[in-house]
């Protein structure tokens, strides 16, 4: 358990993960009935971008900062095009966080982004195994009766949390992948049990892309997990052939809302334009499983 998200908060992978999360939360809010957000790997909830950890890696500069200041993109004309509404609204929500009045100082993690998007009727169930991160998380939400923090293994806790009393909602699975192979197998076993207990829930799984071959077995598993709709959104800022660095990442969404493909298409295009590094970023959006017609886009 060496992973601390504070070193990576706001990086290009968070931009993909959290903008997809934002889109899913907006979709859930389209109905009046309450929903549940279950975050199996919650982190500490909020990160100081001027703190020691974020300063050491500076990863947010090639992430969220590129969306805020498109001209930071090396040698590019990226600033000339307006952001798609989803990304604009997501950024506005982050800038509206208390503490960010004079510019981006704090980067909210998934639990805080979700809590700020939720209504009074919705509930959040957050699991975090690391005791110090869990303490910070609990402090962050001690005043918020909608939010329940569990200092425990998110994979184990999920069994007890499903199905949620709200009956509809989203499970976010965002582990550190310290041991890649093992983590994927654990996710598959957890999802198998979760889909039995709660077949109608939305499950969003973030995954790192270093070498493509490391991800393929999981994507194949998703195609045969029995779910009727699975959407995959990926963004690569480097070629996916080096095991030594994070080249990109993806979000797999089980039981994705039917219109999520349309909602994410333009934002992914814009993220690729703004987050590209030494060469053009690649993005991919397609249904791994879809009832009825298929849609797919791979660029460039
Ligand atoms: N979801 C967070 C966000 O988007 O802001 C970031 C989570 S970070 C990638 C992964 C977190 O999972 C770390 O804080 C780590 O301590 C925690 N963790 C690792 N193994 C865990 C487990 N089995 N159950 C719950 N939390 C775990």
From TrEMBL:
Coiled coil: none annotated. The active site is at residue 174. It catalyses: adenosine(2030) in 23S rRNA + S-adenosyl-L-methionine = N(6)-methyladenosine(2030) in 23S rRNA + S-adenosyl-L-homocysteine + H(+). S-adenosyl-L-methionine binds at residues 18, 41, 110, 128, 153-154, 174. SUPFAM superfamilies: S-adenosyl-L-methionine-dependent methyltransferases (SSF53335). It is an enzyme of class 2 (transferase). InterPro entries: DNA_methylase_N6_adenine_CS, RlmJ, SAM-dependent_MTases_sf. It holds the Pfam family RsmJ. Its EC number is 2.1.1.266. Gene3D superfamilies: Vaccinia Virus protein VP39. The keyword S-adenosyl-L-methionine applies. Monomer. Specifically methylates the adenine in position 2030 of 23S rRNA. PANTHER family: RIBOSOMAL RNA LARGE SUBUNIT METHYLTRANSFERASE J (PTHR37426). This is Ribosomal RNA large subunit methyltransferase J. It comes from Dyella caseinilytica. The lineage of its organism: Bacteria, Pseudomonadati, Pseudomonadota, Gammaproteobacteria, Lysobacterales. The gene is rlmJ.
